[in-house]
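To whoever is on call:

I kicked off a structure prediction for a single chain this morning and the downstream step that reads the tokens threw a length-mismatch warning. I double-checked the sequence; it's 751 residues and nothing unusual in it as far as I can see. Pasting both halves so you can look.
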Amino acid sequence: MNALGRVSGLVRFGVIVLAGVLVVATLVVGQDFGPAPIVLREGEAAPQTIIAPSAVSVVDVEATATERDRVAALVADVYRTDTQVTETVLDAVADVFATFGLAAEPLAPPETTTTTGATTTSTETTTTGGSETTEGSTTTVETTTTTVPAEPLPRTEQILLVQEAYPLLDDQTIATLVDLINGDIDRVAAGENALFPLVRQEAIDIAEEFLLEGIRSTELGAVRSELVTVPRPLVLLPDDVRPLAEAALADVVQQSLQANEFRDDGATQLARLEARDAVADLTVDFVAGEHIVRQGDRLTAVQLQAIEDLGLLETGDEGTPVRALALVALLVVALTATFVARLATDLWRRPKMVGLFGLLLVLTALASRVPELVSRDRIELGFLLPAALFGYLAATLFDARVAVLMALPVLAFVALATGDLALVVFSAAATLTPIPLVSSVASRAQLNLAVVFSALLHLPLAGAIAWFFYGSETVVVSAIWGGVGGIASGVVALGVLPVLASVFGITTTQTLLDLTDRNHPALRRIEETAPGTFNHSILVGNLADRASRAVGANPLLARAMAYYHDLGKTVQPKYFVENQFGVTNPHDRLPPEESAAIIRSHVAEGLRLAREYRIPPDVAQGILTHHGTSLMRYFSHKGEETYGRGVDPTDYRHRGRKPKSKEMVIIMLADATEAGTRALVQSEDPTSESIRELVESIIAEKVEDGQLEESDVTFGELTRIKEAFVDSMIGYYHTRIPYPGFPVTRSNQPA
């Protein structure tokens, strides 16, 4: 390696190191890498706004507990019936009426008198028809027993006896029942039904009815009051005793009733526990992009739990180390530079291009901070990330290979700056989206269409990624912002590209489109001063475009090179045969070496004019290499005829450079093909076979002369170039039918 090469290598290395340092600085500035604990307490004001990066569901413990308490409180107390109390009450009612019965019993046994009668019997025999019949009669004296009842206690004593036994009974109740049971003596004696047993049984039935329904302690007073105020009717009793009997019955029953239904604490607690357990947890849902808490708002337990579940609650024990970030960023820069050096060696050899590549890396780092700046409150705004810008720039300023490699630093820097996986995926995809669209444009309309189409692709791209990572509720807004970012990237790229191209001396697609515009001053100069050369250049451009597409070269660059490859002929246009219409060839009067010098000079003059018209170096290479070091055979032959065979062939060779790129090779072959075919047409009627032979001979001559030895064009590509030339030239010089009134020439004679 010579000294110049070592200096160039050191410059490239220094550029990459500087780019790496600037990238690290860009990613680090404004970020806090030290321990930064977020101290959050319930009831205190939030120190910052916190947004949910993804959906989360949090159990509201307080609300759930409140709801369970409410449901449990609605569960009624569970009561159980004490059958023993029921039996006791019924027995007590029966005992009351038994006491009245005892009070009404006589003090001595009753007296009994018995009367006995005699019986007489007689017999009579009667004979009838030889038969005897005996008839008799009997007289009976009956015995009758008469019971004389004893006298019961006097009424007053009965009442006193019952009062002593049941002092709580109403005096009227006692008197009524005493009268009722005593009256039964007369009623029975008179053959009527006793009434006291009816009242007794009705009292027992009423008490049993209430007891079977269950009487709680809280209800006992109401039941007693109901019995007294609304006595049960005794329809079987006579009207004269019914009201008093009904009141007495109610008094006896209400005095005897007791509560027989008691609260079961264990069963009640169990029922309420079951009711509580049946209430599902009450949750609060936060969707992706939703504010969990805004700065200054008081924090709730739910918000704290959501923050913790999402892993947003930093402990402050360990922050993101700046050294780790710097190391990752530097490794990404170094890795990307290594790929470029290996895959795009022609670009890597040019320090300016390395400097431009380093600048793109720094701009990529700057762009990666955009989501952090715009999406603090809305995660959808992160899709404004101008990742597509670097796809545009890299594909236009470099080539598709370098553009694809740019996806690596873009996604890496976005990951380091945001930590958002959704934006990482989007950034990589957005960088790649415009590459196939802008890499093959051949017109300004196609370039504008590529920008629009790329922006439209951002809509479903951003929407789908947001749907996957953030949820369906973010799809529409994310898609809109993604489209806006795509349009902005394209517009910025169209505005920045001319500036970068001018500063770094790079031929961009936009520059090539401007150069191929017929209104370009240099093209107008060719058209006005050398119209034959202009037509030749247009035809060469068409050939170059078709051949470039056949071998994967840049058709737009090849066309621009073709348009300007003979720019130098505008200095002395009449010395070139295509511009000698109607004039004598001036070379007929010049010695061959002088003619060769004039022809040779159009390359140098073309380079001079290229600088004057600011033709980019990539395009000007077509001027320098379209002849290479080819031999001017016409003047070399003329020199041999003039001076003999001792003529030095180098005196009749062009002084350019041999082509290296595919585009340069195509321009050299297209120039020779167009000129040769035009000469063929002037001498004979061309056929497809003659055109094919001519093209094959031209390519073979260039190969044999060593003009293609420095290029990377393969024989297979040369074959495809040849076929493209042949097809094009056959289309240009097809046979035409002669029209009446027009002179017949070789070119329009019928086949």
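Update from on-call: the warning came from a stale cache, not from the record. Cleared it. Sanity check on the structure: The chain has three domains: 3-30+320-510, 81-113+146-262, 516-732.
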